[in-house]
Amino acid sequence: MIEFESVAKVYDGQREALSNVNFRLAPGEMAFLTGHSGAGKSTLLRLILGFETASSGVVRVAGTDLSTLSGEKLARYRRRVGVVFQDPNLEDDLSVYDNVALPLRISGFSESEIPKRVKAALSRVDLSDQATARPRVLSGGQQQRVGIARAIVHRPALLVADEPTGNLDPELSARVMRMFTQFQQLGVTILVATHERAVVESLPFRRLVIEKGSLVSDGMGTNR
Amino acid sequence: MNRWLLDHTQAVSDAWKRTSDRFTQFIVLVCLLGILLAIPGWLAQIWIGMASLVPEDAVRSEAIVFLKQDLDVEARIDLERSLSEMPSADEVVFVPRSAALEQLSSQDGLGPIADLKSNNPLPDALRLKFTMQGVGASEDQIIEKLTSDQRVLSLRYYPSTRIQYASLVEMLGFLGIGLSALTIIGVLMAVFLVAAADVVDDRRRIELYTLLGASRRFIRRPYLYRATILGVLAGLIACLVVTLLNEVLSSVLASNLEALDTRLTNFPMDGRILIGVALIAVLASWVGAERAVSRRLKALH
């Protein structure tokens, strides 16, 4: 699903954020991307989301070289990817329902299809009863679940999460990770960037460790 | 409802929501833009309006060309033809000396000179009316040419008010254009700055929509609708201010207008100015929003 081939990213011609990164993530696979702050996790995710282009090497997602995409093609590619942020980044002036419906409206889903999908996504994150609420009245954990519902509502083949449990307590973090595990079982490819060792070590998934822009370890984690 | 209509309805409601969230800022901007644009609009109105007020005689130069006594008919017709073919000449009328004597004798106190009919001392003349668009330089050339013409005895040149005050009018025109340009630049800068600030406020939203795969068109749409609403309202205010100022000017000048030309009772409003002002308001606002969102989107990559 995701393929990095000798990828390097250099900013301003001198600051090397990534260096010779090679890995492949098969369809339906889930992996953690770990490393300290500034190690290059965000750059790697930005490359996958098409916000950056590699200075050298190739980034392929579902067989497509992302450097060949721009404009409308790039927008269409992003519609097939789900993204979860540390800060759920919800629109305060929209209800929970409308926030979750946003990717569907952007993708041009029909108005008859949208309610079914939004209902299913909210039910998957146990927030069916909060559909009409405004995000600001929800707790941090609930807001994060709305963010997850928004990321999966259009049933993406790839889900990318950037520190999704960064603002949550351990119990909520575990719940969010259980959700990701369920999505993975449904065939979604998932890449979770996190620097929380407890989260990574609690689940038996592949672990990519990045340090100073280089991939220093790629192996399976252990389920404690 | 089809997708296109839905997208646009959503963009309009989004634009309206954004407007109501920052209502005070929006109203201040509308008034500022409207009043600033009214300045060049009103200057243009004075410029065009004044031109329509000045009587035709005052904006057309004229020359009376007195012909030599012994000039034969053929030479006179030749001169008359060469004058009428000049681009600055609008009309050439032959005034025979008998008609000139008759006209002169009809004036107060000059009745007795009609007795000179048999021994008329007046020369034949050509009355040359210049075009309204004529410029001083080309009229001067014609006068110079006529003065040195062997067939011409003498001539009297009555330059138009416009030509007499050409340098003053030209300076005022440049001042007006300069002031209008400065005001329009000021308007554009204000609109661009506010549009940019608006977009910076929405930075997170634009990033989110980009991440979710929204096309540039989809992201821009609400901002452009908002800009259009702003431009239309500002244009209306500008038109209202220009019309009101024109009414005030008309009432002040009413008595003077009648003295200038009895046919004139008001200071006519030029519709082209109102359309121009409204169009500039909409375009400035639209271009400002378009530019600000495009720059933000470009900065994302």
Report on the architecture of this protein.
The complex is a heterodimer of chains A (224) and B (301). Chain A is 33% helix and 28% strand. Chain A contains seven helices and ten strands. Chain A has helices at 41-49, 71-78, 96-107, 113-124, 140-152, 170-185, 197-201; strands at residues 2-11, 15-25, 30-34, 56-61, 64-65, 81-84, 158-162, 189-194, 206-211, 214-220. Chain A is globular, with a radius of gyration of 17 Å. The model of chain A has no long low-confidence stretch (mean pLDDT 86). Chain B has helices spanning 3-21, 23-53, 56-59, 73-84, 97-105, 136-147, 161-164, 166-201, 203-211, 216-260, 271-300; strands at 62-67, 89-95, 125-130, 152-158. Chain B has two domains: 3-55 and 166-300, no CATH class; 61-159, Alpha-Beta Plaits (2-Layer Sandwich), CATH 3.30.70. In chain B, helix 2 packs antiparallel against helix 8, helix 2 (23-53) packs parallel to helix 10 and helix 2 runs antiparallel to helix 11 (271-300). The chains are: A alpha/beta (224), B alpha+beta (301). The interface between A and B is medium-sized, with 25 and 21 residues.
Give the C-alpha Rg of chain B.
31 Å
Q: How many structural domains can be distinguished in the coordinates of chain A?
A: 2
Strand residues, percent of chain A: 25-35%
Specify the number of helices of chain B: 11
Structural class of chain B: alpha+beta
Instruction: Give the overall shape of chain B.
Output: elongated
Order of strands, widest sheet of chain B: 2-3-1-4
